[in-house]
UniProtKB/TrEMBL annotation:
Taxonomic classification: Bacteria, Pseudomonadati, Pseudomonadota, Alphaproteobacteria, Hyphomicrobiales
Organism (species): Pseudaminobacter soli
GO biological-process terms attached to the record: glycogen catabolic process
Superkingdom of origin: Bacteria
Modified positions (N6-(pyridoxal phosphate)lysine) in chain numbering: 673
Alphabetical keyword list: Allosteric enzyme, Carbohydrate metabolism, Glycosyltransferase, Pyridoxal phosphate, Transferase
The protein's name in its UniProt record: Alpha-1,4 glucan phosphorylase
Catalyzed chemical reaction(s): [(1->4)-alpha-D-glucosyl](n) + phosphate = [(1->4)-alpha-D-glucosyl](n-1) + alpha-D-glucose 1-phosphate
Length: 822
């Protein structure tokens, strides 16, 4: 960890007087706010004190930003997301405020090492993977490009599980990120809202006897209490709010039950409320389908909408102007019950008629779709939805009646197409389709890469798109360069500043000036030295945590992301096995030393994903121990992949593995982080890889395999993987080795079914793409053997990745969806 600061140029040169003043402030915070004296303070106490000192500065900006938005009657953006994968905040805050070096020096003068306490900060893992990390990058970019915004989500007491590897298997442990308190957040007890579940709906008659209003009388009630975290943009420009809700009982203790001697039953309400914000469902790209999940979705959605309405009413006094002053964004379908909830609040609580309410709703909401996987599209059984949310069920039916009427009136849809547009799935068990509900209730529906958006129009939303052809649009994902370059790769950032000056720090488009340096031999040497130092840092972490010794001069080939069959870690592992065979059979050849890193979590209930983790570890054990390999190939599974580990691994990669089955990865953002840090990509034409190729140039990326269209054709045209496997000796041999227990002598049948699945159906086209993948890996070796060429390509990747900044993405959302200046 120490290496990072050794070569990074500080954003500000520390001044002695500033340092002394800062050190005094830290001591003050330690004494009066942590309640400790320097002589007895633990490292955690120093961490808290350091954060509090910086937090004070952030609060000054926060108050100013909030006041300004109010005074200017600015339109606000509300980003509703069930996940925010924010990671650690301290370094990001120091870096964005330009205080990194001052804080390092001030802490140093007190005998405290910044890099040591930084590793103690808990990694806030309130998300599964890409979707949650996107929400976090967006929050930072909205603050940076000066969009007044609130993020809304759940304050999970236990976020994403901590992964340990035991005997090669994934073991899930609770991540208790709040154990040492959370100095970043502010509890707002006064900002709490009631949330109801179940019960009945009553119709209240007006004086003339006509039905006037619906009154929902929930059977259960809990409170949502706000916890606010300030989100600071680059150079402290603007500070926005991430507001996370925690469940609290309306009656913490049921006194009647307690007095009657039922001491445990008396806490019933407390436990129920607590459950709402206890755990994050650890499934990525597949819906949890559990009642508690629907409760969580409704819980945070209604609290957020009530909060938004209260803020709007206090400023404007009426709700018809909501679409002009509030843009509410639905990050995937998880908050899409919001469409029915806003209708309920407008009609039942605020007395607005259906048609007007529907206009306000559509004018206010926009929705981002994140996946086309059919199994990932959220829907809820009608009986469950009706029991928990009886009034919302009525509203969904009312919206549906209008939607289907509109579709029928066009005369353009047959019965089957109407059935696909419906908010209710009628085949088999009746279910509420949350994607269709979000689509119907939004004025904008966006995909997250050009390819994904096109496929969305052709598949899941084909009929709704025909009905409302102007709604679907594309917003290719992005990443914040502050975290994913400036903060995590101080060495490269310093080098770029030396080469092209500081303009790119504020205008990432200026990064293209680095392109000219790809041909500069001296620069290439420096670039390689930075990469090498980053690799040495990763190697030392792996040595310390896993006892595996790695050579930083080997090619570092990295695949880190959630473990999922469509992401095809299996393809990568099979290629490692095939390469292992080749190295042993042809020791005379000039093999390029390579380390294959794999990392990622599997959903605890996803059998094959967990088996793939075990396979990676089994293969690693055999290969790493085999003297015949002579260290030319190593395989390392890095446990507990999270944002903090990503911050170390992205800068250390030579090769980025983005090898999903074409058509299945909506965008990917890991692909962007790697390329921005100077890794070359090996990948399929999937998600944002397509656009990365357009930006970095086809010569600076390794593309292989079937296209999305070819995948679809094969699936329709009776793809026969067995024949494909039998014509590839390399693949057949690798599969035979895995299947027969070469890597699992303790349980030779462990991988039999996994491998026979490839022969039988191979839905993810592993066999179909294997030969192309393996051949492309040998091309990678050839280019790696020519370091000046490799480094030139890597430099061009860095230079040309600026477009993938989430600042660009957010500006597009702001102008084209939210209608706010940016
Ligand atoms: C960026 C990121 C992801 C997303 O990775 P993909 O390769 O796009 O799936 C997941 N987890 C973490 C911790 C990340 O930082």
């Amino acid at each position: 960890m120490k290496l990072a600061s050794a070569y990074g140029l500080p954003l500000q040169t520390p001044q002695t007087s500033d340092i002394e003043a800062l050190a005094a402030e830290i001591l003050q915070a330690l004494k009066y706010r942590v309640g400790k004296d320097a002589t007895v303070a633990t490292q955690y106490d120093w961490l808290t004190a350091a954060i509090l000192v910086v937090r004070d500065r952030i609060i000054d900006h926060w108050v100013k930003s909030t006041k300004q938005a109010y005074e200017q009657s600015a339109k606000r953006v509300y980003y509703l997301s069930l996940e925010f994968l924010i990671g650690r905040l301290m370094r990001d805050a120091f870096s964005n405020l330009g205080m990194m070096e001052d804080m390092r020096a001030a802490l140093g003068s007190l005998g405290v090492e910044l890099d040591v306490i930084a590793t103690l900060e808990p990694d806030a893992a309130l998300g599964n993977g890409g979707l949650g990390r996107l929400a976090a990058c967006f929050m930072e970019s909205m603050a940076t490009v000066d969009v007044p915004a609130h993020g809304y989500g759940i304050r999970y007491a236990n976020g994403m599980f901590r992964q340990e590897i035991s005997d090669g298997w994934q073991v899930e442990l609770p991540e208790t990120w709040l154990d040492h308190g959370n100095p970043w957040e502010f509890e707002r007890r006064e900002r709490s809202f009631e949330v109801g579940f179940g019960g009945t709906v009553e119709q209240v008659a007006a004086k003339d006897g006509r039905l006037e209003r619906h009154v929902w009388r929930p059977q259960e009630r809990v409170l949502a209490v706000a916890y606010d975290t300030p989100v600071v943009g680059w150079r402290g420009n603007r500070v926005n709010t991430l507001r996370l809700w925690a469940g609290m009982p309306v009656d913490p203790i049921l006194l009647d039950a307690f007095n009657a001697g039922d001491h445990i039953g008396a806490l019933r309400e407390s436990n129920k409320a607590d459950a709402l914000s206890r755990v994050l469902y650890p499934a990525d790209s597949s819906p949890a389908g559990q009642e508690l999940r629907l409760r969580q979705e409704y819980f945070f959605t209604t609290a957020s909408l009530q909060d938004i309405i209260q803020r709007h009413l206090s400023q404007y006094g009426e709700l018809h102007s909501l679409p002009e002053k509030a843009a509410i964004h639905l990050n995937d379908t998880h908050p899409s019950v919001a469409v029915a909830e806003l209708m309920r609040l407008l009609m039942d609580v605020h007395g607005i008629d259906f048609d007007t309410a529907w206009g306000i709703t559509k004018g206010t909401f926009a929705y981002t779709n994140h996946t086309l996987l059919p199994e990932a599209l959220e829907s809820w059984p009608v009986p469950l939805f009706e029991r928990l949310l009886p009034r919302h069920m009525q509203i969904v039916y009312a919206i549906n009646a209008q939607l289907l009427h509109e579709a029928r009136t066009t005369g353009q849809f047959d019965g089957e197409q109407i059935a696909r547009i419906s908010l209710i799935e009628e085949n088999g068990e009746r279910r509420v389709r949350m994607g269709n509900l979000a689509f119907a209730g939004s004025h904008s529906i966006n995909g997250v890469s050009a390819l994904h958006t096109e496929l969305m129009k052709e598949t899941v939303f084909a009929d709704l798109h025909r009905l409302y052809p102007s709604r679907i649009n594309n917003k290719t994902n992005g990443i914040t360069q502050r975290r994913w370059l400036f903060q995590c790769n101080a060495g490269l950032t310093g080098l770029i500043r030396e080469a092209i000056g500081d303009r790119f720090l504020d205008d990432i488009a200026a990064l293209t000036e680095l392109d000219a340096f790809a041909g500069d031999a001296a620069f290439r040497e420096k670039f390689a030295a930075v990469k090498r130092a980053n690799k040495a840092r990763l190697a030392s972490i792996v040595a310390e945590r896993q006892g595996i010794k790695l050579d930083p001069s080997a090619l570092f080939d990295i695949q880190i992301k959630r473990i999922h069959e469509y992401k095809r870690q299996l393809l990568n592992i099979i290629e490692a096995v095939a390469l292992y065979d080749q190295i042993r059979s042809h020791p005379e050849r000039d093999w390029m030393p390579r380390v294959k890193f794999l990392g990622g979590k599997a959903a605890p209930s996803y059998h094959n994903a967990k088996l793939i983790i075990k396979l990676a570890n089994d293969v690693a054990r055999v290969i790493n121990r085999d003297p015949a390999v002579r260290g030319l190939l190593k395989v390392v599974f890095t446990p507990n992949y999270n944002v903090s580990l990503a911050e170390v691994m992205m800068p250390a990669a030579d090769l980025s593995e983005q090898i999903s089955t074409a058509g299945m990865e909506a965008s990917g953002t890991g692909n962007m982080k790697f390329a921005l840090n100077g890794a070359l990509t090996i990948g399929t034409l999937d998600g944002a890889n397509v656009e990365i190729r357009e930006h970095v140039g086809a010569d600076n990326i390794f593309i292989f395999g079937l296209t999305a269209q070819e995948v679809a054709e094969r699936r329709n045209g009776g793809y026969a993987p067995r024949g494909v496997i039998e014509t590839s000796p390399e693949l057949s041999q690798a599969l035979a080795a895995i299947s027969s227990g070469v890597f699992s002598p303790d349980d030779p049948n462990r991988y039999r079914d996994l491998i026979s699945g490839l022969y039988d159906h191979d839905w993810f086209m592993v066999a179909a793409d294997f030969d192309a993948y393996a051949a492309t890996q040998r091309q990678v070796d050839a280019v790696w053997g020519d370091s000046p060429d490799w480094n030139a390509r890597a430099i061009r990747n860095v230079a040309r990745m600026g477009w993938f900044s989430s600042d660009r993405t957010i500006r597009q959302y702001a102008r084209e969806i939210w209608n706010v200046p940016a």
